[in-house]
Amino acid sequence: MNYSTSDSPTSKCSVCVLGQFCLPVGLNAADVTRIDALVKERVHLQKGENLYRHGDPLSAVYSVRFGTLKTEYCLPDGRQQVIGFHLPGEILGLDGIGEGHYQSDALALEESEVCIIRFEAFESLAQEIPVLQHQFHRIMSRELTQDQRHLLSLGTMRAEERLATFLLNLSQRLAARGYLNNEFDLRMSRVEIGSYLGIQIETVSRMLSRFSESGLIQIKQRHIKLIDMNGLYELAGIPNPDRSASACSPDARIKKI
Amino acid sequence: MNYSTSDSPTSKCSVCVLGQFCLPVGLNAADVTRIDALVKERVHLQKGENLYRHGDPLSAVYSVRFGTLKTEYCLPDGRQQVIGFHLPGEILGLDGIGEGHYQSDALALEESEVCIIRFEAFESLAQEIPVLQHQFHRIMSRELTQDQRHLLSLGTMRAEERLATFLLNLSQRLAARGYLNNEFDLRMSRVEIGSYLGIQIETVSRMLSRFSESGLIQIKQRHIKLIDMNGLYELAGIPNPDRSASACSPDARIKKI
DNA sequence: CGCTTTATTGAGAGATATCAATACTTGTGG
DNA sequence: CCACAAGTATTGATATCTCTCAATAAAGCG
Q: What is the DSSP letter of A234?
């Protein structure tokens, strides 16, 4: 773990390309400068390095600058589950605010760098900048929504649907960051995907092979091409956002459980 | 749905017994008075009534005053899943902040009342009261942690463990609110429990019967007695908080996936 | 009191887990 | 540069848990 403090121009929030996903959303230039002053430290992580461990006292939350991280929970009996994968611009460590120490473990899936947002100082600044406060609330709320959609996946979907949903979710998040949305490298192992989706590694492998045979994807090791996006969306049971489609219709909602 | 506005002494935050779980935690008397002024409206709900539906624009978040509510997500194909059950003092509607409209449906499982916290006004007040801002962050963070533990349950546990975890979680939350922790009424149907736990109603029923035969619980309809708490904790794979026990030990963590 | 909803229990089917063998990658050292 | 080892992924065969279908029972409600 490699700490650094820097005022170099390229590392400021005010010029960071991730600003549109990160804390500064909605802020004017003057206020972004105040964030610049707050977020001066970074951590450089090698693959496999921990950013924090559960139980560590919360002193900061982090935003991913580059790379990919995972967070996971563990059970006393040693079982673990991957809870999330974190791409550039996403915030980590929010689960630590409630009790003052992190509830999860966070570690890098590849060489990564995260910005350190000292939480006490951040709250003070948010106190002074309403837009920043609101943006932080939006970020936490979206995190909640993300987890709740994940719950929906684990609770109601079969393995095939979960995997399709996962691939599409990743694709959308990459697209939003300006990467290719139909061809990318999976930074996580099959084991980690399985853990995230609540299925075994063998099932992940079989489903990927099945997708490949069906012409939905091409996969070679961790490099994946999404060939038939519509097919994947159909499998996932969610409408393709590229082609209209309404969400859960009022009609569908009448049949309450 | 029955709106009311009231200044009656019994409905003020400053005298509400739920203050210790709700927004006012940590506030001094003067500041609680300012919350009193903010939270003047309430909604009274009959069993089955919606508090909000997904897609409704967010204008407020809500805290449960009495009763029980559930929130659920629906899939375009009509499948639904219960995401959470909400007891007095808990906050609902947080998933609406991210996009400006609720992502879930919320409805009452029994006659309930919730306090309306106009969100815009709330953010303004939080802007002025640092402790309030921090408390709100803690609430959102705990909500995240709750969902993430739920993910752990759906992703790694078998039906029996999920159910035991669910009963114990409910028990703990009731205990914190001063209710009996070993004997209570389930406000939700077997179907709703199953949906929440990602298992079928028949499985819920069978597991409850099994628990009953093992002497872990006594159950008659929706009235349940937890007889052997330690046994349940053991089944759930989590240490009984009443008897020391460390969480996930460093040793257990070495065996990373 | 009968009707509707909710819950229990049984039998069989099916999806995924588990166990096991093989193949492929990557990294290391001769 | 190749051989070997360790880690990672694929594929097959079988086991198991939970689902599905079905029948019955109990409870809530008008």
A: H
Q: Look at chain B and count its residues.
A: 257
Residue B82 in this model has a pLDDT that exceeds 70: yes
Contacts of A138 in chain B (CB under 8 A): 97-98
Rounded distance between C-alpha atoms, residue B154 and residue B162, angstroms: 7
Which bases on strand D have an atom closer than 7 Å to a protein beta carbon?
A: 8-13, 17-22, 27-28
Contact between B109 and B84 (Cβ < 8 Å): no
- B92 contacts B64 by C-beta, under 8 angstroms: yes
And the tokens for B167? 């009963």
Which nucleotide in the DNA or RNA is closest to residue B189, CA to C1'? Answer: C6
Write phi, then psi, for B132 (nearest 5 degrees). Answer: -70, -45
Q: How far is Cα A191 from Cα A200, in angstroms, rounded to an integer?
A: 7
| Rg, chain B, Cα only | 19
A201 touches strand D (CB under 7 A): yes
Chain B residues closer than 8 Å to A91 by CB:
none
Q: Out of B83, B94, B133, whose CB is closest to A133?
A: B133
**Of B137, B151, B247, Cβ closest to residue A97:** B137
For A74-132, write each residue's pLDDT tens digit.
988 888 999 999 999 999 999 999 999 999 999 999 999 999 999 999 999 999 999 99
Among candidates B53, B156, B238 on the partner chain, residue whose Cβ is nearest the Cβ of A198: B156
Q: What is the dihedral of CA B86, B198, B80, A174, to 10 degrees?
A: 100
Say which residue the tokens 């500041």 belong to: B31
Q: What is the pTM of this model?
A: 0.92
CA distances from B26 to A119, B66, B106, B203 (A): 18, 22, 28, 43
Residues of chain A with pLDDT under 70: 1, 6-10, 243-257
Burial (0-12, 13-18, 19+ Cβ within 10 Å), A215: exposed
Specify the amino acid at residue A61: V
Rounded to whole angstroms, the Cα distance separating B105 from B49 reads 11
In our burial notation (b when 16+ CB lie closer than 10 A, e otherwise), range B162-180 reads: bbbbbbbbbbebbeebeee
For nucleotide D21, give the residue with the nearest CA to its C1'.
B202
Domains of chain A as residue ranges with CATH: 2-130 (2.60.120.10), 157-252 (1.10.10.10)
Q: What is the mean pLDDT of chain A?
A: 90
